[in-house]
Write a structure and sequence with these properties.
Chain A: This is Ferredoxin-like protein. Chain A: It comes from Cereibacter changlensis JA139. Chain A: Could be a 3Fe-4S cluster-containing protein. Chain A: GO terms for molecular function: iron ion binding; iron-sulfur cluster binding. The complex is a heterodimer of chains A (102) and B (435). Chain A has 102 residues and is of the alpha+beta class. Chain A has a single domain, classed as Alpha-Beta Plaits. Chain A contains four helices and six strands. In chain A, the strands form three sheets. In chain A, strands 1-6 form a two-stranded antiparallel sheet. In chain A, strands 2-5 form a two-stranded antiparallel ribbon. Chain A has a two-stranded antiparallel sheet with strand order 3-4. In chain A, strand 3 and strand 4 form a beta hairpin. Chain A is globular and about 40 Å long. Chain B has 435 residues and is α/β, with parallel strands linked by helices. Chain B has 15 helices and 17 strands. In chain B, strands 3, 4, 5, 6, 11, 12, 13, 14 and 15 form a nine-stranded mixed sheet that branches. In chain B, strands 1, 2, 7, 8, 9, 10, 16 and 17 form an eight-stranded mixed sheet that branches. The longest helix of chain B has 20 residues. The chains are: A alpha+beta (102), B alpha/beta (435). At the A-B interface, helix 1, helix 2, helix 3, helix 4 and strand 6 of A face helix 3, strand 11, helix 6, helix 7 and strand 15 of B.
């Protein structure tokens, strides 16, 4: 299978996001988790449904977020609005995802 | 910046640009603020541009706007896992030199629109995120706070054109938080090809002809949603979107859904050999009329996606955004000319004019659709599958007579829904929501 076919049929998240342009605001993540006693089902669902795969399990089974690949869609903010586990703001002006085609 | 503006527009998408352009043309002192490196760099859409809405703002837009292809054919696909039943509408009436819709890429298009806004006299600052609104002690909005140094910026009115995921309106408690069942999460990839490959694969006659394909069925795995495939000049936009509440429930990764769509036998030959150059995700307001927030208050107006202005049934959004933006701009300019302040009472002018426009009439017409779809997921899964089964059985030549085939086909449709009563009920429900 050629690389081109790979691209057409989908690959790993890293390869997918590699095509995108980002200006990461180092040290100032715009999405944070406020951990509670237990991670809510909503927060856990984000490990599957975040379109950029920003939510991952840690070694001790909790949910962590690394928002460098975030496309700022806001899905996590809305899914977890009731649980209060997510603090969400837009990156500072000029930072974050920069769409080439949109 | 201590200057006082007639109006501040938050966001430089279709609604913000339409509004800022209209006000600047009318001689108002307008400041527009956008988070992106350039206007468009934070914006995502399918994307279809509807000519009528833009013609009413910039009549000669075709001379300079970066348009991809004019849409001469609409195709509708109903997919099961391995088959496809489709319908299409080709209209060469679009060929009068003024086609009614185009595919566009939002980053270059919004950049172009923004240039027009600045030429009209508005001031634009980019790379600046509006973080909150400033209110006076009577609760009237009098300006914005940004993430730049220099304190608040003041204006007579603030237009929130901040998009579906705008957080300023919520933070200032002007509009309620979005609900997961009122937004769709869509993911999209842009695959690049030589121009002639696109023309050949999609049977395009004219050099700039284009096709849009809207897709229902197995592609959303039973969730409320649709998929799409649009032809651009040298690329194909392919995407799928479903209600965020459904993704949260099924825990299906949206990119896996997209990959499954890309692997469907109807899609594989169209995408073969392309180069994927961008992967994006965005929310689409799908709550319809009942999810529209209050659109005006003392010193503020909401337009575009921030006001939930999407006609999900007809896949229209950018035209509603531009129209709400233009109408708001016209009304604010009229108030200004009459020496009237943009209070909630005076902004009745905007609410009334919006009510008279196609925007509110269409939103109202399909008011019941979001609820219908949310409660009747079979419309997205069962029927497309049943229809494909019927087609397959009916057209297969295998020695069985046609009357027997018809009987089996009809019984299969009823069986898929657990009886004719359910099928009839579904039909009535759809007809009612459509009316």
């Amino acid at each position: 299978m050629s690389d081109k076919q790979d691209a057409a049929e989908g690959g790993r998240m890293e390869e997918r996001l590699y095509q995108n342009r980002y200006q990461v605001d180092e040290g100032r993540p715009h999405v944070k988790i406020h951990p509670q006693a237990e991670d809510s089902p909503e927060l856990q669902a984000l490990m599957a449904i975040c379109p950029a795969g920003c939510y991952r399990p840690t070694e001790n089974g909790r949910v962590e977020v690394v928002a460098d690949g975030c496309m700022e869609c806001g899905s996590c903010r809305i899914v977890c609005q009731e649980t209060g586990e997510i603090e969400w703001a837009y990156p500072r002006g000029g930072y974050g995802i920069l769409f080439k085609f949109g | 910046m201590s200057e006082h503006f007639d109006a501040i527009v938050v966001g430089a998408g279709p609604s913000g640009n339409a509004c800022a352009y209209t006000m600047a043309k009318a001689g108002m002192n307008v400041l527009q603020i956008d988070r992106g490196e350039y206007p468009g760099s934070k914006n995502v859409q399918g994307a279809i541009l509807y000519s009528d809405a833009l013609e009413r703002i910039i009549p000669d837009f075709r001379d300079s706007a970066p348009l991809e292809r004019h849409v001469s054919e609409l195709r509708f696909w109903m997919l099961s896992e391995t088959s496809n039943t489709s319908a299409s509408h080709r209209n060469d009436g679009f060929e009068d030199g003024k086609p009614d819709r185009y595919t566009i890429l939002r980053a270059p298009f919004d950049k172009w629109f923004s240039k027009k806004v600045r030429e009209a006299g508005a001031v634009l600052i980019t790379e600046t995120t509006v973080v909150d609104l400033v209110k006076n002690d009577k609760g009237k909005v009098i300006g914005v706070l940004t993430d730049r140094e220099g304190g608040p910026i003041y204006a007579d009115v603030v237009v929130l054109a901040e998009g579906v995921n705008g957080v300023v309106g919520q933070r200032a408690k002007l509009r309620p938080e979005l609900k997961p069942q009122h937004v769709a999460l869509a993911v999209k990839e842009t695959h690049f090809f030589p121009e002639e490959v696109i023309r050949e694969r999609f049977n395009l006659q004219g050099e700039d002809d284009g096709v849009v394909i809207e897709v229902l069925g197995s592609v959303t795995s039973g969730m409320v949603g649709t998929a799409f495939l649009y032809t651009n000049k040298e690329s194909i936009s392919i995407g799928v979107g479903c209600l965020l509440a459904d993704f949260a429930k099924t825990k299906i990764p949206p990119y896996e859904l997209l990959d499954r769509f890309k692997r469907h036998p109807a899609v594989v030959p169209l995408l073969r050999g392309g180069e994927m150059k961008e992967y994006v995700a965005h929310l689409i307001p799908e709550g319809g009329y009942d999810a529209i927030p209050n659109l005006t208050g003392d010193g503020w107006v909401i337009v575009g996606d921030a006001g939930q202005f999407v006609n999900a049934v007809h896949r229209e959004g950018s035209n509603l955004a531009m129209t709400t933006g233009r109408l708001a701009g016209e009304c604010l300019a009229e108030l200004k000319a009459q020496g009237l302040a943009p209070t909630n009472d005076n902004l009745k002018l905007f609410r009334d004019r919006l009510g008279e426009s196609f925007v509110m009439k269409d939103m109202k017409k399909y008011r019941k659709v979001p609820h219908l779809l949310e409660k009747n997921r079979q419309l997205f899964a069962t029927y497309p599958r049943a229809i494909n089964q019927v087609m397959q059985a009916y057209f297969r030549v295998d020695g069985m007579d046609k009357r027997s085939k018809e009987g089996i086909a009809l019984r299969n449709v009823a069986k898929a829904r657990g009886g004719w009563w359910s099928v009839a009920t579904d039909l009535v429900k759809v007809a009612r929501a459509w009316r």
